[in-house]
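Continuing from the previous page...

OK, I double-checked the sequence for Large ribosomal subunit protein uL23m against my notes and this is the correct one:
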Amino acid sequence: MDAIPITKKLIAFGSKKIYLPKFTVALIRTPGISPYHARFLVPLDFSKYDLRDYLYHAYNVKCFNIRSFVKQMPVRDTSQQPRHWFRPESKKYMTVEMEQPFVWPEVPDLEPWGQKEKKKQDREGITSQGVVYQEEAREAARTLRDQARMLLHRREPLVDQSIEKKKVKGVELSPAEQAKEEQRLARERELESMSRLKLWEEKRTDKIVQGDGASGYTIKA
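Thanks. Re-ran it with the corrected sequence; updated C-alpha cells here:
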C-alpha cells in the first residue's frame, strides 16, 4: 500500500517564521535502525510538532510519525567537588519515520591527521591536573583483580583465544601456534610448583623507599 503524501490539506504545519532559533537539534548516528528512521537529540521543551515543522521547513523532510523518550541521567559527582552528588539535566530523544531513506556516509580514516595523538595529548594534559577518568579507574581495578586472581590460583592469562577455538573445532595448529601452546603449558606447570610468595616476589615492582623520615616515604621507582 502506497504511503499517503503529507500535505497541508491533511495536516496543518506551523507558519511562524523563526530566523534566529535558540535551540539546537542534533542528528544522532544510529546504524542499528532502519534507513527510513532518524534519531535526534532535542531540547526538553521540544514537542513532536516542533520537530516535524523544523524538519519540513528547514530541510523539506516529511515525517509520518514521531516517537520521543526522555533519558534520565545518573547521579554523579565531580573531581573538583567529590561526594557532592547531583543529577545532570535529562536528555530528550526523538525518532522520526521519514518518507525518503537516509544512509549515513562511511566514517573517514582520520589516522593520517593524528587524531589518536591529539586525543592522547588532551588526555595526558587532563590527567596531569589530577582528573581520573572512570574507565581508567575501572581498568586499574580490573588489573588489580587479575593480579590477585593470579596469586590465588597461580595462573597467568596467557590463553590465546584463536588457539582455543582451533582446539575446540579440532583444527590442526601451525608450528608457531604449537610452540606458543607448549610454552604456555610449560609455564602453567612451573606456576603449579611455585609458591605464592615466590610468585609475588617475581611479579612485584622493584621499588625502594628513599628514607625513614616523613619526607622520605615517597616511593622511588
